[in-house]
Amino acid sequence: KQRALEEIRDLPACTPDGCTVSLLANIGLLSDIKVAHLHGAEGVGLYRTEFPFMTRSSLPTRQVQASVYRKVLEGFPDLPVHIRTLDIGGDKGLSYFPHPKEDNPFLGWRSMRLSLDREDILREQLAAILIASASGKCHLMFPMISGVDEVRRIKAILSQVKDELTREGRSFDPEIGFGVMVELPAAILVIDMLVKEVDYVSIGTNDLIQYTLACDRNNPRVKKWYDPYHPAVLHSIKKVADAAAGAGKPASLCGEMAGEPINAVLLMGLGLRCFSLSAPNIPRVKEAVRRVSLQKAREIGDRVLAMESAQSIREYLEAAQRELG
Ligand code: PEP
Ligand code: MG
């Protein structure tokens, strides 16, 4: 097994007809860096910064954050690292940060909403990421974006933080990439406007499925309604891929969905060329990419988009999976 892993690790994720897909890792802890390399990750598509906040007993200062982010960037020399700003609330809390009790935490004060209301926390984090950006190929990523207003507000804050750092004589990457996560149905509906405002988008299917289908991602009682194959989810993904391609901006997908090989094939068929996934899933997804032609993936994508029921999509994909071996 170890030998098989080593063999595939350094091979490109390229289809027999020459379509290359990027496979990056989702990480949270510094110990994930090693795991990512072990599985051949081509960088980090999603670094969840909740972890450095969760493993401390008070809000980490800008210096503490910068040193953690720098370690991540130094762990991936010359490879892209997409650092996502704090995404707490919902199911993730901080022991030292009193969070109001909410009837609907996933519809409540979470993620970017919290960061925009607590601008002090956001500014410290942006400063820390910028300071670390001098050490690698760093990209900023903002979660739970609903539309253009939020993006413009974040940009205004970011530009003030950059000005401050410049005045302090700190070096940072002035061209740092600016991307947003697409995980709200609202973002899908205004995706043509959003892609114009950003350098790239990354689809977060864990939340996109939850919000599209109004189905709690952690509630086992409604698990059967939480379905990545619901046509609404797949058509949403297709809409993002098309909008990004139309605007000449990269689109990736960083939800758990991409960790399943047949799903990655389907997503390629819908037009995506970059996935960020839990690192141990990279080799098996790469194997599938190396075995299936882009032409076949597109055929699968087209067939699935024409289907009206999640159940028939599931059955069709199971058959396709068996056929691909
Ligand atoms: C997602 O929502 O798909 C995602 C990747 O982010 P998280 O799981 O951290 O919410
Ligand atoms: Mg999410």
TrEMBL record:
Protein name as annotated: phosphoenolpyruvate--protein phosphotransferase
Gene: ptsP
Shown part of the complete sequence: 455 to 779 of 780
Family according to the record: Belongs to the PEP-utilizing enzyme family.
Organism field: Geomonas paludis
Compartments where found: Cytoplasm
